[in-house]
């Protein structure tokens, strides 16, 4: 079966600053991301992983090269077009959950579903991450793992075609990390969302259909994984 390309990335570069103090965070990335796959970006701290994610998700602009999403060049979108792309097509999960503390779990999710084109009912989103009983809780009343699952429910509720996960379990212990990763994989199963998971943990990388070894702003190797692991099979 020929896989459909969702993101086509060509010669992508990102330089921060100028002159002697310039940081070359991305040094020419060529990569296709296919509809429905789980891709893990594995690399050390400072290697440019978040920079790549932020550009693909329309949070940052590259200094060179191109990104096409479903045939559309992101560079050709104005701020309004980019906002639309972020709102309707992609979801983000960050290491530190980024929930609004003054809103309940339900209200945090509603912020997104009120704007989304074809949202999932909030109760369904909460059920998908195993938090049906936590909708009326505020972030401070939830554990770290529960907060991260609310953040995942918030992203899932858009039925995103693409989910960017930047060190999603970086702040969690083993048990809550497994539950978090299971919640993420739900998006892939339920909506065929493409997942790009950033980690520096080689064991988490086993969840991917492809593992991209990243170092110093460049792709070093792409490994095809014939049998992706389930979250509860991870050792870490
Ligand atoms: P990773 O996510 O792999 O840890 P990053 O993409 O965050 O790496 O960073 C890659 C490099 O770019 C690092 O050297 C970092 O210091 C630099 N960098 C990232 N964002 C900025 C920024 N906004 N301004 C200046 N330098 C940055
Ligand atoms: Mg990072």
TrEMBL record:
Keywords for the protein's UniProt record, in alphabetical order: ATP-binding, Nucleotide-binding, Transport
InterPro entries reported in the protein's UniProt record: AAA+_ATPase, ABC_transporter-like_ATP-bd, ABC_transporter-like_CS, MacB-like_ATP-bd, P-loop_NTPase
A single GO molecular function term of this UniProt record: ATP binding
Residues in ABC transporter domain copies: 7-236
GO cellular component, one term: transmembrane transporter complex
Family per similarity comment: Belongs to the ABC transporter superfamily. Macrolide exporter (TC 3.A.1.122) family.
Annotated protein name in UniProt: ABC transporter
Source organism of this protein record: Ahniella affigens
């Amino acid at each position: 079966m020929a896989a459909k390309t969702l993101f086509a990335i060509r010669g992508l570069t990102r330089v921060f600053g100028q002159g002697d103090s310039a940081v070359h965070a991305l040094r020419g990335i060529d990569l296709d991301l296919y509809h429905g796959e789980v891709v893990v970006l594995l690399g050390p701290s400072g290697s440019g992983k978040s920079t790549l994610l932020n550009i693909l998700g329309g949070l940052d602009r590259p200094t060179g090269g191109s990104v096409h999403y479903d045939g559309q060049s992101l560079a050709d979108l104005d701020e309004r077009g980019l906002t639309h792309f972020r709102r309707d097509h992609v979801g983000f999960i960050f290491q530190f959950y980024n929930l609004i503390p003054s809103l309940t779990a339900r209200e945090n999710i509603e912020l997104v579903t009120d704007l989304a084109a074809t949202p999932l009912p909030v109760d369904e989103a909460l059920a998908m991450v195993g938090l049906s009983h936590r909708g009326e809780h505020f972030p401070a009343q939830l554990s770290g793992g529960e907060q991260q699952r609310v953040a995942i429910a918030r992203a899932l509720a858009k039925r995103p075609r693409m989910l960017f996960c930047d060190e999603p379990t970086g702040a969690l212990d083993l048990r809550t990390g497994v539950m978090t990763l299971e919640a993420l994989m739900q998006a892939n199963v339920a909506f065929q969302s493409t997942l790009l998971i950033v980690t520096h943990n080689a064991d988490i990388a086993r969840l991917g259909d492809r593992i991209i070894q990243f170092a110093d702003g460049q792709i070093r190797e792409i490994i095809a994984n014939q049998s992706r692991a389930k979250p509860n099979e991870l050792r870490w």
